Amino acid sequence: MKAFDLSLYLVLDPDLCAGIGMVETARLAVAGGATMVQLRDKHAGTIRMIETGRALKQALDGTGALLIVNDDVEAAIAIGVDGLHIGQEDMDAMRARAMIGPEMILGLSVESEALANAVDPGLVDYTGVGPVFATPTKADHKQPIGFDGLARLVKASPVPSVAIGGLKADHVAQVFAAGASGLAVVSAICGTPDPEAATRRIAAEIRKVRA
């Protein structure tokens, strides 16, 4: 059984993180309580993804936080990360699972109840559900679903779900009330003046809700 904590899931954005870089942003966020870190860089080739991913892996070593690679299965395997996250347009879950093997965590983005219902828990370990709100960090995102839509998709998903899309510390209670296991954040941490403090604020809200 793979053990992972979706509660505070940082998705790195190379543009927003440009000030101090993705590796330092991730290090500070994990110090502040981030439980998972996803390397997402749609403009980087596999070689650059591997370079960044290896630096991230080294920075997070011993912290307990898990490292996920978005989309690039070749990079995920080469780095030896904890997991791979794919979208509906990237590759199908069966092929992804065949490539990464049984041990690596596999996450899948779902934007509708039909897609959530279609998830095979024998292949997929968690779903990324959203976007809850419109967000500039993903220009091609689907129609926002709001918290009512989040609750419906979480209920339809046969595996744990992490909410994504314009989420901040103020939304923690609503995310967990909808049944999600956590929230994925980008701009709420990336590009902030103090990523560690920004993460601590979200982590404190999560502790409050869970208590």
UniProtKB/TrEMBL annotation:
Its cofactor is Mg(2+). CDD domains: TMP_TenI. One of its GO terms (cellular component) is cytoplasm. It is an enzyme of class 2 (transferase). Binds 1 Mg(2+) ion per subunit. It catalyses: 2-[(2R,5Z)-2-carboxy-4-methylthiazol-5(2H)-ylidene]ethyl phosphate + 4-amino-2-methyl-5-(diphosphooxymethyl)pyrimidine + 2 H(+) = thiamine phosphate + CO2 + diphosphate; 2-(2-carboxy-4-methylthiazol-5-yl)ethyl phosphate + 4-amino-2-methyl-5-(diphosphooxymethyl)pyrimidine + 2 H(+) = thiamine phosphate + CO2 + diphosphate; 4-methyl-5-(2-phosphooxyethyl)-thiazole + 4-amino-2-methyl-5-(diphosphooxymethyl)pyrimidine + H(+) = thiamine phosphate + diphosphate. The keyword Metal-binding applies. Keywords: Magnesium, Metal-binding, Thiamine biosynthesis, Transferase. One of its GO terms (molecular function) is magnesium ion binding. GO terms for biological process: thiamine biosynthetic process; thiamine diphosphate biosynthetic process. It comes from the Bacteria. Signal peptide: none annotated. Residues 8-189 form the Thiamine phosphate synthase/TenI domain. Pathway: Cofactor biosynthesis; thiamine diphosphate biosynthesis; thiamine phosphate from 4-amino-2-methyl-5-diphosphomethylpyrimidine and 4-methyl-5-(2-phosphoethyl)-thiazole: step 1/1. The keyword Transferase applies. 2-[(2R,5Z)-2-carboxy-4-methylthiazol-5(2H)-ylidene]ethyl phosphate binds at T135, P136, T137, G166, V186, S187. 4-amino-2-methyl-5-(diphosphooxymethyl)pyrimidine binds at Q38, L39, R40, D41, K42, N70, S109, K138. Its EC number is 2.5.1.3. Mg(2+) binds at D71, D90. Condenses 4-methyl-5-(beta-hydroxyethyl)thiazole monophosphate (THZ-P) and 2-methyl-4-amino-5-hydroxymethyl pyrimidine pyrophosphate (HMP-PP) to form thiamine monophosphate (TMP). NCBIfam families: thiE. Belongs to the thiamine-phosphate synthase family. PANTHER family: THIAMINE-PHOSPHATE PYROPHOSPHORYLASE, THIAMINE-PHOSPHATE SYNTHASE. This is Thiamine-phosphate synthase. It comes from Rhizobium leguminosarum bv. viciae.
